[in-house]
Amino acid sequence: MRILIILIVAICVAWGAQSPQETIQSLLDSKKIPAKVISTQDLGHNLRAVILEHTQNSEQILLFSSSDGAVLFNIGEFMWSGDNAFLSKLERASTEFEKTQKARVDSKALKLFESHKDQVISFKAKKPTTNTLYIISDPMCPYCLKELENLPKRLESSNVKMLVVGFLSEDSLKKASEILSQKSNDESKNLALLKKIYDKNYKPKDSQNPKVLEISKAVAQAGVHSVPYLIESK
């Protein structure tokens, strides 16, 4: 009889215990954080990789937790360990997450090139090809300027489609507005226009096109938070 009671108690305890994923979700709910646990992965050393998804905008983030899920935290830029197997697991989890997120954002961003065709600036490759490079660019971004300077090389093997946004400043919005209002179907004129307005010494006119603000917001909502943002499609 005593053995039976002990067995029943053990079963009840097992039923009542939460998995690490459930514990993390309970923690999020208790802190009123609008996120749900998508997955967890054991890394060893009492650590788990945790992917959370925001319940409102579906954006995902990679965090880490204790093995039981009771502690949830972010890992800074630096981490050292003599356990190479652990570091490999950590790197693999981070790489897989970044790859998945890039694919998610790419899919959303490519839809914007379709839904905002009137704002897309297109360049054909020097030779017929199905390869297309999609670029989201800001006229005030120095890295975007370098990418623009690299355009002739890109066109050797790929078509290029550009969406110009105003992310970085008010001048970004003004420059992007000028580009949108002056762009045409002439590729050479469009390239000359981009070079002129992307020049760091160019002073934009005091005007803003509502469409630029619209596409800039849509791009940010798609998950693009840095420029230039490149998508290669074949």
3D architecture notes:
The model is unreliable at 1-15 (pLDDT under 50). A hairpin with a 5-residue loop joins strand 3 (60-66) and strand 4. Helix 6 packs antiparallel against helix 7 (187-198) and helix 6 (170-182) packs across helix 8. The chain folds into two domains: 17-74, Nuclear Transport Factor 2, Chain: A (Roll), CATH 3.10.450.520; 113-233, Glutaredoxin (3-Layer(aba) Sandwich), CATH 3.40.30. Helix content is 46%, strand content 21%. By secondary structure, it is of the alpha+beta class. The chain has a four-stranded antiparallel beta sheet with strand order 1-2-3-4, sandwiched between helices. Strands 5-7-6-8 form a four-stranded mixed beta sheet.
Brief overview, please?
The protein contains eight helices and eight strands. With 234 residues, the protein is of the alpha+beta class.
List strands and helices in order, with pairings.
Layout (H helix, E strand, L loop, with lengths): L1 H15 L3 H11 L4 E10 L2 E8 L5 E7 L5 E2 L10 H32 L4 E4 L8 E6 L4 H8 L1 H4 L4 E6 L5 H13 L4 H12 L11 H12 L7 E5 L1
Parallel strand pairs: 6-7
Antiparallel strand pairs: 1-2, 2-3, 3-4, 5-7, 6-8
Helix pairs in contact: 6-7, 6-8
